């Protein structure tokens, strides 16, 4: 089963590069089926880094809640609408099942059929002699059910609604009844009785079944050929042959076309609600094109498997992919504060260290395992470190980050100084994105002392574009606040050149009065030497909240 390696929602370069690199390491060590994933497309700066590294972006997965396709039984036993009872019954008996989905020959789903429905096909109309004698089938299918052989065949595959007549009466009575029905619909069953066979052949019936293993005489066979009568030789006696012919009826009337159908993408929790309310035994699962993808029974949902996740660059469920709370979390690699909501049923590997980048932790895993990264993966990890530490200038930078980046330089095959320069020049969010996307691109949600808020961060070269777009960015923060029902939303605009930031708020909460940074206008502050959301801004907000919650003496 796939193991997804996920960064946080609205992933930045470090989150995406850490997911890609760690998935690569896991594929080479403990989880061959590890896949890097993310909750949205990479930003331009990350795209630039991946293109330089010649790596594909992670798979975009917006929701990891288990779906029906994760638990349904693939390649189920099926029936076709032109098959007969005997074929389908034997198949169900062989596989010990009591219901099957039904398709047409173009593989289109039609419905389901149960064993009880099939039994009604065989015994249909037993209280009505006219219905009881009707057999919707073909001469070829009847021959197969009888395990017989043709002495003469004329268009045996042609489907027909046949009328069964058993020649067990006097020749005179049989002949009289014979002429009451259209010859083309009649299927006559008799033993070695030429007095019955002759009028049937002369009348030109659709088929004559001779029981007991007997064959027509040469003269009667010639008459059958000239009147285009199918002749089947059955080894069974007349009673057994008649019963078997009834089991050659097509299953079409038994198909339940109005049945509960599940979609491959339906969440398991939603499917369970539907299934619990239905008396149905088997539930067809269809894909987006309406084709049968599998089947599901109630027992399949008793203990469904959970999606397996490894989280990088975050440890809070509020920042994780949708459905993480219903998944099995195997590992966490992070460099942020410990958040709330993360639980597991068993011990997991949890690495949380105060370094500047999650890619630093991933690179350390490569070194600890004695595995050399490829040039592509080395550049990928270096990009995450360069991005999150502002090329080792952020206060979050540690000696471990410096040592790790120096180690990775030995594996890359490009000019790193030129790469760093180009990396920070490319992908200005303010130049290329609408305000609504700017405030959501690298956005993290937090909860502290009863306040729910978000902090978004972008890195720019200078503030010129910010001043041009200040009003629309403030409007976008207001929309974000209302959309997520927050107490406030913040945008940290970091200038890579001056190593400082501007902080724009949707609102100024009461506790904000104690901030010691200069105000530049409504909801706007100048934060010199502040470039880290994690190590500088978030602790500042936490201190302000703590001070505001202290009782006044």
Q: How is this structure best described in words?
A:
- The structure is a single chain.
- This protein is α/β, with parallel strands linked by helices and 553 residues long.
- It folds into 3 domains: 3-65 and 306-425, inorganic pyrophosphatase (n-terminal core), CATH 3.90.1640; 125-248, Udp-n-acetylmuramoylalanyl-d-glutamate--2,6- Diaminopimelate Ligase, Chain: A, domain 1, CATH 3.40.1390.20; 429-549, Diaminopimelate Epimerase, Chain A, domain 1.
- It has a 6-stranded parallel sheet with strand order 3-2-1-16-17-18.
- The longest helix has 21 residues, at 464-484.
- The radius of gyration is 37 Å and the shape is elongated.
- The mean pLDDT is 91.
């Amino acid at each position: 089963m796939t193991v997804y390696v996920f960064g946080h929602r609205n992933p930045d370069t470090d989150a995406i590069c850490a997911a890609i690199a760690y998935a690569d390491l896991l594929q080479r060590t403990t989880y061959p089926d590890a896949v890097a994933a993310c909750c949205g497309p990479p930003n331009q700066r990350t795209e630039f880094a991946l293109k330089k590294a010649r790596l594909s972006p992670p798979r975009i997965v917006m929701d990891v809640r288990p779906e029906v396709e994760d638990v349904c039984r693939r390649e189920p036993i099926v029936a076709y609408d032109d098959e007969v009872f005997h074929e389908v019954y034997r198949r169900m008996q062989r596989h010990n099942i009591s219901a099957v989905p039904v398709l047409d020959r173009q593989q289109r789903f039609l419905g389901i059929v149960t064993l009880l429905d099939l039994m009604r096909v065989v015994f249909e109309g037993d209280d009505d002699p006219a219905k009881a004698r009707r057999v919707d089938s073909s001469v070829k299918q009847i021959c197969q059910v009888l395990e017989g052989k043709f002495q003469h065949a004329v268009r045996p595959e042609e489907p027909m609604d046949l009328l069964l007549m058993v020649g067990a009466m006097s020749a005179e009575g049989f002949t009289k009844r014979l002429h009451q029905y259209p010859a083309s619909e009649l299927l006559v069953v008799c033993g070695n009785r030429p007095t019955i066979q002759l009028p049937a052949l002369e009348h030109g019936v659709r088929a004559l079944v001779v029981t007991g293993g007997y064959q027509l005489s040469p003269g009667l066979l010639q008459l059958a050929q000239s009147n285009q009568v199918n002749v089947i030789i059955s080894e069974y006696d007349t009673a057994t042959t008649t019963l078997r012919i009834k089991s050659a009826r097509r299953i079409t009337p038994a198909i339940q076309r109005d049945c509960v159908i599940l979609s491959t993408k339906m969440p398991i929790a939603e499917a369970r609600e539907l299934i619990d309310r239905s008396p149905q035994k088997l539930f067809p699962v269809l894909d987006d094109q309406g084709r049968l993808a599998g089947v599901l029974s109630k027992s399949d949902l008793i203990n469904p498997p959970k999606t397996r996740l490894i989280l990088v660059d975050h440890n809070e469920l509020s920042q994780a992919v949708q459905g993480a709370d219903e998944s099995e979390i195997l590992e966490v690699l992070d460099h942020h504060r410990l958040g709330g909501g993360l639980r597991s049923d068993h011990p997991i590997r949890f690495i949380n260290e105060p370094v500047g980048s999650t890619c630093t932790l991933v690179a350390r895993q490569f070194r600890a395992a004695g595995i050399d990264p490829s040039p592509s993966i080395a550049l990928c990890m270096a990009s995450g470190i360069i991005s999150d530490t502002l090329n080792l200038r952020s206060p979050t930078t540690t000696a471990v980050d410096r040592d790790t980046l120096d180690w990775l330089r030995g594996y890359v095959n490009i000019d790193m100084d030129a790469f760093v320069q180009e990396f920070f020049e490319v992908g200005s969010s303010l130049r290329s994105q609408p305000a609504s996307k700017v405030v959501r691109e690298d956005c993290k949600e937090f909860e502290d002392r009863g306040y729910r808020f978000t902090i978004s961060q972008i890195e720019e070269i200078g503030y010129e574009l910010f001043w041009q777009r200040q009003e629309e960015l403030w409007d976008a923060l207001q929309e974000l606040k209302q959309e997520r029902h927050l107490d406030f939303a913040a945008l940290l605009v970091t200038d890579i050149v001056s190593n400082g930031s501007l902080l724009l708020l949707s609102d100024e909460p009461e506790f904000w009065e104690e901030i010691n940074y200069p105000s530049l206008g409504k909801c706007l502050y100048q934060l010199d030497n502040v470039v880290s959301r994690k190590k500088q801004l978030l602790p500042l907000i936490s201190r302000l909240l703590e001070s505001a919650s202290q009782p006044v003496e």
